[in-house]
Amino acid sequence: MKRLYVFAAIVSLACPLSALAGPGVRYRCSDGTRIVAAFDNRGTGSAMLSFGRGPPPLTLPQAMSADGGRYTDQSTEFWIKGRGATLTRGGNTVTCKTR
Question: Span of the secretion signal (predicted)?
Answer without folding.
Answer: 1-21
